[in-house]
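Record pair follows.
FIRST:
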Amino acid sequence: MKKLFKILILFAMVLTLFACNKKNDAAKTNKIEKTEETTASAMKLTEMPIDKFDFQTMEIMDGKIIKSEEFYKDKPITLVNIWGTFCGPCKEEMPDLAKLYEKYKDKVNFLGVVVDTNVSMDTNVEEAQKIIKDSGVNYTNIMPNPTMEDNLVNISAIPTTFFVNSEGKILGGFVGKADKDSLAATIEKVIAENK
């Protein structure tokens, strides 16, 4: 069973590498509703391949145990960003996510999930910590555990960002790197729709 799981993870990572290298199709992949280039608009959120995102795992910077039910209860909305240390677009959007976290941290939780690390702390942890620090990210980033990995194999590409309510139900999301202004407009829209 573990061998099959590792094969599935490897397959997902190969698909992810393919998606991370498709920079020219970002607008199509994100399904962004285009308006004028100078006006940021909220992105259209699409259904995600998983309905609920629950976890109990370790925070990557300090190793503390993080439980979804405790993490989600602080705010009505959580932005979850699935990323990897090998993914250029993932790393490119992190400084913008850090700035948006500072702007919205009183209204929205932010959570990063580093797909190519694990709770045994033997894969890419130091590299992920360096990326987080260099990007100015101050929000929580977690490592997948085996239970979470079962859900993550359904994510076809990274970066993937989705919004979760306080019960862990996924409200919708998008695949690909988002620009800061469009993501800010999307956060505002999600907040307004989930008061």
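SECOND:
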Amino acid sequence: MVKCRRKLNIEKIAKDTYYLHGGTDEEFDDYMDSIFDYYNEIGFDITVVDSEVPFSIDRDNYRFNGAIDLIYKNQNGEYGILDYKNTIFKDYNREKYAQQLLTYILALKNDSKYCDIEITEAKIYAIKSRSLIDFNIGESRLATQKEEIQNTADLINSHEFNKNESSYCNICEFLKYCNG
């Protein structure tokens, strides 16, 4: 069972992110039940190191900002990152999620607080399907992701990129670049 203090911390984190991303009061209890099932039944025994960790990757021709849901330490003392998705996991999203997690690890390598820790695990927890998914985060994947970010930045800077329309287009800070 989730300890009371940890339960309150989890609820605070969940509320902060749930409503930020358009969650409704009607679904919040199911959302919380799924999160607590994750902690109670999947047996993922971790120590939370930090949550909602903001990051910025700054290079000569781009800046990439975001936030990492959770940095943790496992029972073996190894560090990992976890991203919560309020969705049902579909395998066709696996590569997109892998790229996101790899980007987080690259960001931590440039963060003065976390640059000395090695992230050995990267996971997604899909809340609606109550699925914990592990991702391969080897050095070659990190190098490829770093290169892909640079290539994407180069394309954006040269105005040669494909627009990916979504419900977030109207609030995207890059709206002026793609006429979204």
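COMMENT: Helices lie at 4-20, 25-41, 94-109, 139-157, 175-178.
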